[in-house]
Amino acid sequence: MSRPEPSRGRTGRPPLTSRPQILAAARRIIDRDGWEKLTVRRLAAELGIGTTTLYHHVRDREDLLIQLLNEHADRTLALDLPREPRERIVAAATAIHDSLAAWPWAAEVLTTDGFLGRLGKSSLRMVEAVLAGAVDHGCTPEQAVHVFRSIWYFTVGEILVRARSTGTDGERPAFFAGVDMSGLPRLAALGERWPELAARDTYPRALRSFVDGLLAGTAPRPSNS
Amino acid sequence: MSRPEPSRGRTGRPPLTSRPQILAAARRIIDRDGWEKLTVRRLAAELGIGTTTLYHHVRDREDLLIQLLNEHADRTLALDLPREPRERIVAAATAIHDSLAAWPWAAEVLTTDGFLGRLGKSSLRMVEAVLAGAVDHGCTPEQAVHVFRSIWYFTVGEILVRARSTGTDGERPAFFAGVDMSGLPRLAALGERWPELAARDTYPRALRSFVDGLLAGTAPRPSNS
DNA sequence: ACCTGAACACCGTTCAAGT
DNA sequence: ACCTGAACACCGTTCAAGT
């Protein structure tokens, strides 16, 4: 896993490609060409190495993406969190959300199996904060996991849906064109205002409602003594 | 869009491939080989036609998937909903959830831009039900859209994350293996119980909490007169 | 009007071999 | 120990042509 010092006497050819180099090249591609263009083949080309060489440094494409995400998390999740339980939960969830919203390509990796077990320390700190906030509020560990998972699903859903929504609203033709609106009065009344309303950033407000709803079931801890 | 009667005199060769045939073949592939195998090329092969012929009947792969989803919705969302606003919202969201949970491949299409505008009547009925429930509870149209979107994000997130989670728990090695747990006491205390807790189906409970939280902000309508 | 093969421009990953 | 080209087994989509 860790690379040896170049000065230490060792057998074999010294590596020409390092993990930080690979991640830097990947970021370069994303910034320059868009994250859709980050493929194993292009990344190798960017590094000036053979495609297959990359497979000595990353297990597969998914592994590359998770390493990239963890590095991103290290840079964006190093913040202090409030002490009060509810505010702690809200702040941690918001940090996760904002971090992911800035990297919509993260969507590809968010839903992989066993994702949590492959997360780095920075991300796990945020998971811990939500769990601790819930427990401090009076939740059992089981309830705390439920609180975390609920918030996680909502956050992932928000990111994934909005990541694919074009910001190019304005010149788009009738959103509900060709849809038969009979029997759908509320939807019909909204009509073409829908795209505008759907584009609003309502994550913070919805998050607070959700946290309130989740914590309402469990009695808050009695103040000490 | 609609196909002509074969008996009516018309110019040109009669079509050998119809929309229902295509959708039936697609379902056959999904049931037999798994939804990952549903590709344009395989579908054409299943139908016994050239790959390019398919492009006369569907605009592209995404269009095929949305047609398939709408057909699925027609078969699964034809249910009655309770009249009481809160129960109406919960029932509609649960119907959407259960319908999607049964077809995890729907994940591929859920997040496409302008998705709502391409939905069929059965799905829009559920959207309408959530909006109507919120308005009947006392929400403004703007708030009702907020309620729908919040529930939608949560539902999509739950489906997408759980769709990729293997049900093959039991023989999997240590979930948090190799993770440094120092400074993460709540997570450490949970330890290897995490996969078991994360596998629980908590959607209904979390949904109720969310709906409660979302409706709490808006005063319930005064009973009539 | 409907259908087609060939081609374009790609993918991720593995193998056996080279230095 | 590290790197490699070639190959495998695919993708979605477009074009110009055939019946």
TrEMBL record, chains A, B:
Keywords noted in UniProt: DNA-binding, Repressor, Transcription, Transcription regulation
PROSITE patterns the UniProt entry points to: HTH_TETR_2
HTH tetR-type domain mapped to chain residues: 16-76
Pfam families hit by this protein: TetR_C_1, TetR_N
Keyword Transcription in record: yes
Signal peptide (UniProt feature, chain positions): none
DNA-binding positions: 39-58
Keyword Repressor on entry: yes
PANTHER family in UniProt: HTH-TYPE TRANSCRIPTIONAL REGULATOR RUTR, TRANSCRIPTIONAL REGULATORY PROTEIN
Protein name: TetR/AcrR family transcriptional regulator
